């Protein structure tokens, strides 16, 4: 769903053969694969889901040229960004954190910690890209996420959901000692063939895991389906227009 975001950033920054990219929270590796196809040397770090990291390895190996182990020696690390230190050669000149922040309370704190650990691995003046949700009135998925966090925190009427703020990304960059150097907005609609696909797709993000632990999976599926109904079209497809922001910053 975030492919338009990746494409917009890579095009704007002219990602190519001279790019040495460190992807924080790389998940299943799609953004890394897209950069590798443009000629970039890529390293991904993720500690949240071993299963997604396995998928990233599979993608980067299976899509590589015949006879090679992975695209341009791509590396995937399950652990701390500090483990991604380049053993030899130039440091990273691009760091990406594409997991969007700005829709749930506390999501920026974790990003700040990742950036603090990654900054020493990048060269001076390296570009750092942060991503975030746009205004809730322009992100249809926000209402669905609100339901999920309400279930995860039943003592509050709105759970840990909060509206995205205009300066979310800038505040994280400032705390991490980064210098803002541009920004943009990208339309990233979430589209699914039917209701079942939409439920499975959203559950696969992991954003509903806490809700399932606090209640049960049946309850989560029920309320998620109810929240998605306003976004189901007459042909049965589910369509949620969203706007995402990205911030380009530079290391000191």
From TrEMBL:
<keyword id="KW-0949">S-adenosyl-L-methionine</keyword>
<dbReference type="InterPro" id="IPR041698">
    <property type="entry name" value="Methyltransf_25"/>
</dbReference>
<keyword id="KW-0808">Transferase</keyword>
<keyword id="KW-0489">Methyltransferase</keyword>
<feature type="domain" description="Methyltransferase">
    <location>
        <begin position="22"/>
        <end position="97"/>
    </location>
</feature>
<dbReference type="InterPro" id="IPR029063">
    <property type="entry name" value="SAM-dependent_MTases_sf"/>
</dbReference>
<protein>
    <submittedName>
        <fullName>Methyltransferase domain protein</fullName>
    </submittedName>
</protein>
<dbReference type="GO" id="GO:0032259">
    <property type="term" value="P:methylation"/>
</dbReference>
<dbReference type="Pfam" id="PF13649">
    <property type="entry name" value="Methyltransf_25"/>
</dbReference>
<dbReference type="GO" id="GO:0008757">
    <property type="term" value="F:S-adenosylmethionine-dependent methyltransferase activity"/>
</dbReference>
